[in-house]
Amino acid sequence: MKIYTQRLEQLKPKQQFETIELTFDVRQKSRFRATLKNGVDIGADLPRNGILRSGAYIATAQGDVLQVNAQAENLMQVTAQSEFDLLKAAYHLGNRHVPLMLTPTALYFEPDHVLAEMVMGLGLRVTETLHPFEPESGAYAQHQHDHRLSPIKALHHVHH
């Protein structure tokens, strides 16, 4: 079994790599086992320095490289009539410190019917969907900027 022990910041030119899709729950762990699409089992024993973001590369000591991508999983999708309503929902969900993914047109969080009812009570639509989950890393975590996201991401981690 190949054991991936290193995180890579960048690849060498023309570096070959395999890919794997993992849930957010698995990408938070530094040690895990997984199976590639071709049926090969792999293991990871990585340094404990944060979540594997979608698109991250990990490597074995022998130089085998694996790109880790976010797997589609069951999520709650929040949509609204206006950007301001979406902003209000982000504020209220952020105050509850739940992992929250922000996009310009929707918010995503792991299934939680209490939170879904709260958001619906604010007048927003909540539906269950299958979508890759890449939540915000939080105001104090090390994170990479994703310029595709809406400016409301800065308001995710609001304290009273």
UniProtKB/TrEMBL annotation:
Subcellular location: Cytoplasm
Top-level lineage group: Bacteria
Coiled-coil parts of chain: none
Main location, first listed in the record: cytoplasm
A Pfam family matched in the record: UreE_C
Segments forming domain UreE urease accessory N-terminal: 2-66
Record Gene3D superfamilies: Urease metallochaperone UreE, N-terminal domain, UreE, C-terminal domain
Keywords: Chaperone, Cytoplasm, Nickel
SUPFAM superfamilies reported in the protein's UniProt record: Urease metallochaperone UreE, C-terminal domain, Urease metallochaperone UreE, N-terminal domain
NCBIfam families named in the record: PRK13261.1-1
Record-given protein name: Urease accessory protein UreE
Naturally occurring in which organism (per UniProt): Acinetobacter terrestris
Encoding gene per record: ureE
